[in-house]
Design goal:
The structure is a homodimer. Chain A starts with 14 loop residues before the first strand and ends in a 10-residue tail after the last strand. In chain A, β7, α6 and β8 form a beta-alpha-beta unit. Chain A is α/β, with parallel strands linked by helices. Chain A is elongated, with a radius of gyration of 20 Å. At the A-B interface, α1, α4, β5, α5 and β6 of A face α1, α4, β5, α5 and β6 of B. β7 of chain A pairs antiparallel with β7 of chain B.
């Protein structure tokens, strides 16, 4: 069927592209509904790392796995949309949640050319909450999620958001704090935050959440500046109230001070 | 065993209190690892609504379910800690994620009196990402999560965060936008946001995510001001780039404009 340019929302839609979040890593972090969709779909589209994480869910290697490299997300999405339009049971696999720095939005944008394909999005546990659980409860009150990747967002905008998040008193969770091409971005972000926040603000990071080699550390903002991070690291910056309890990072919500 | 005031971290800990997030509602939104913990633990502590959501997981009614009303979270946590200390297999159940406006932080605070009990926190899908998946992809770029409940946070602080989130260019997800005692809080929040944002900014809300009676709507910020919300509603406020695509709310990340 060629691309339909005529918008006919009344047309019966029975082709579905599932866009799912598989959580941060381990199989046990996948929700029941996403697991069902993965079982049901024969065509898995995704980033190579996710296919590797899911290999135990396809023990007899019966799934048709189609991957594209990082940077080729649009191509991956177009291929998945075409697969669904051709009537194949298709799932596009995202790490963490399907809509947080992931492909749900791009699929919806591109799907305007595939009006006979319905888009069903199923959420997953995102790194902000999965990493938080490992550290303790750093996001126990209002928080911001900011990606330090400037591939799709200009650095000035990222810098501005860091300033507003810190000045607004939000705990901050940083995705993509560094990569091979951006080795010093976490340091640059810390320097901006240190213009507003005290050096002794409690921070933490988790690398490879739920995956082999999971590591984490709690430190101060001053120390965080010197930590090394990569694209599999999630960083947490506390607020003034954030403290260390039994070696865990905790941003209290205030329950404990509430007078009944 | 009486409360231990002596901190002895070298003591062998073999008592565990599990603090888990069950996702927003339906059973299929629970992760595999949380499901395992619920199966394994005989003593379920939680808010009555969550027990009701989980009733199909305890078909033969073998679990010992202990609930306290809203406002008695500290009592609920203390009871769960005592249960774990007494050697009982105990889980404290949170809606959504265990650490987002939930009890992981309070448990860690209170656990200083229960040093022989280890706290294990397991994340869940929080309403921000579960509601986003229903609306489309409203949180496709940097975002803030703010609770409008002023029971534990002074309203001035909430107001300040709304201003900084809007001025910083974040998409915003509002938890607890209203309750019976705070019927007009969403309107008050919209009025603050309208000082900074245009009336035609795309917004949306979802009520009873993943539960019976799930409803949602996409509207403008000007219209959101007139919408009714309750404590089971999650609200999404877009940014200037947010648009409606095929009836869904999408905050693009920029993939579609990227030049390869």
């Amino acid at each position: 069927m060629p691309d339909m340019e005529i918008k006919d929302y009344n047309n019966k839609i029975n082709k579905i592209l599932y866009v799912v979040g598989i959580g941060p890593g381990k199989e046990s972090g996948i929700t029941g509904e996403v697991r069902e969709i993965l079982d049901m779909c024969d065509n898995w589209y995704g980033y190579p790392v996710y296919m590797d994480l899911l290999k135990d869910l396809d023990k007899n290697n019966s799934k048709n796995k189609i991957t594209t490299k990082m940077g080729y997300e649009k191509e991956r999405c177009e291929m998945a949309l075409r697969s669904a339009r051709d009537g194949k049971k298709t799932v596009l696999i995202c790490g963490g949640d399907a809509g947080v720095y992931a492909l749900a939005g791009l699929i919806l944008e591109l799907s305007e050319k595939y009006l006979d394909v319905e888009i069903e999005i199923l959420p997953g546990v995102t790194a902000a909450t999965a990493g938080a659980a490992i550290l303790g409860a750093p996001l126990g009150n209002d928080f911001c999620v900011i990606s330090l990747s400037d591939i799709l967002t200009p650095w000035e905008k990222i810098e501005k958001r860091l300033r507003y998040a810190a000045a607004g008193g939000f705990a901050i969770c940083l995705y993509n704090p560094a990569s091979r091409k951006r080795p010093d971005y976490l340091k640059r972000a810390c320097d901006i935050l240190l213009e507003i926040l005290e050096r002794n603000i409690i921070c933490g990071w988790v690398r490879n959440i739920g995956r082999t080699g999971e590591t984490s550390r709690i430190c101060t903002l001053g120390e965080l500046r010197e930590e090394s991070a990569d694209m599999f690291t999630t960083v947490f910056i506390g607020v003034r109230e954030t403290k260390i309890i039994r070696g865990r990072m905790v941003t209290p919500r205030g329950y404990n001070n509430k007078i009944y």
